[in-house]
């Protein structure tokens, strides 16, 4: 039987890491919250900051807002430890994805922004810009951090069968301190908003706390007893129910929405 015309495209080796992390994420007992958040004032706030000459983006501002909400509800980014314990860290290290060109394709690579609780939105924006401008030479650059993993180690990892790669990752993640050093305590991901898409994205994550920023759409809302057209962000929360109960999760979500909607 003749085969239909088709094209076989080899994906970059960095995609192997994405596949592995997705597989790990399937084992997490995440509860998902799908929120509509009014970001009209947040957008105005970022615009004013830019007019004042400050280098900032809405995404960087959102990462800082998320960090502020976590700092006020620290148990939300706790990591599971041994003997049914939780480790609650003071520092808030947030992992994000930065789109880079790898082997001719655009792929997301991880960037870990450490101590976001001590940084401004400008500081976060600067780190993201530096990561976007960083050249990708070989496998050691697939993690956008100053503490590079040697190329030989990365090439060996990609050459292993998946069951061995997953075994190594799970061994690392059993220790909350090593887990924090490797991937931080929370993850924020964002999807572009081409056209007029409206809806939520639900990612697979191995983090205990993951936030996905979806499209921003114009929608009617009641403001001061009047109907206005507002900018509404579709925000997804993924919270590991093994670590965090429902009430603290709801408290964190409420505080986060307040911070964002006030453009604080």
Number of domains: 1
Query: Structural class given helices, strands, pairing?
Result: alpha/beta
Lateral strand order in the biggest sheet: 1-8-7-6-4-5
- CATH top level is Alpha Beta
Rounded to an integer in angstroms, the radius of gyration calculated over CA atoms is 20 Å
Arithmetic mean of pLDDT: 86
Number of helical segments?
8
Global shape: globular
Q: Unreliable runs, pLDDT <50, ≥5 residues?
A: none
Record field, number of beta strands: 8
| CATH fold naming | Chloramphenicol Acetyltransferase
Q: What kind of sheet is the major sheet? A: 6 strands, mixed
H/E order of the elements?
A: HEHHEEEEHHHHEEEH
**C-alpha end-to-end distance:** 64 Å
Looking at the overall shape, the CATH architecture is 2-Layer Sandwich
CATH superfamily: Chloramphenicol acetyltransferase-like domain
Q: What is the percentage of strand-forming residues?
A: 25-35%
Q: Helical proportion? A: 25-40%
Oligomer: single chain
Question: What are the SSEs and their pairings?
Answer:
Blueprint: H1 14-25, E1 30-38, H2 40-51, H3 58-72, E2 79-80, E3 86-87, E4 94-102, E5 105-113, H4 121-133, H5 151-159, H6 162-173, H7 176-183, E6 186-190, E7 209-223, E8 226-240, H8 246-262
Parallel strand pairs: 4-6, 6-7
Antiparallel strand pairs: 1-8, 2-3, 4-5, 7-8
């Amino acid at each position: 039987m003749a085969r239909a015309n088709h094209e076989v495209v080899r994906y970059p080796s960095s995609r192997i890491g994405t596949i592995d992390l997705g597989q790990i994420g399937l084992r997490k007992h995440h509860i998902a919250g799908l929120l509509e958040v009014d970001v009209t004032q947040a957008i105005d706030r970022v615009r004013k900051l830019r007019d004042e000459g400050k280098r900032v983006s809405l995404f960087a501002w959102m990462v800082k807002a998320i960090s502020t909400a976590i700092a006020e509800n620290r148990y939300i980014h706790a990591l599971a430890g041994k003997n049914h314990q939780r480790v609650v860290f003071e520092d808030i290290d947030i992992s994000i994805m930065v789109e880079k060109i790898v082997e001719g394709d655009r792929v997301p690579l991880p960037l870990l922004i450490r101590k976001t609780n001590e940084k401004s939105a400008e500081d976060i924006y600067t780190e993201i810009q530096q990561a976007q401008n960083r050249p990708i030479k070989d496998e050691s650059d697939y993690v956008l951090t100053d503490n590079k993993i040697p190329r030989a180690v990365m090439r060996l990892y990609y050459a292993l069968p998946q069951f061995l790669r997953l075994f190594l990752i799970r061994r690392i993640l059993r220790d909350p301190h090593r887990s924090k050093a490797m991937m931080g305590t929370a993850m924020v991901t964002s999807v572009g908003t081409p056209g007029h898409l409206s809806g939520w994205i639900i990612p697979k994550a191995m983090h205990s706390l993951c936030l996905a920023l979806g499209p921003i759409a114009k929608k009617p809302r009641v403001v001061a007893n009047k109907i206005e057209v507002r900018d509404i962000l579709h925000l997804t929360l993924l919270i590991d129910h093994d670590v965090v109960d429902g009430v603290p999760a709801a408290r964190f979500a409420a505080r986060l929405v307040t911070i964002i909607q006030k453009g604080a």
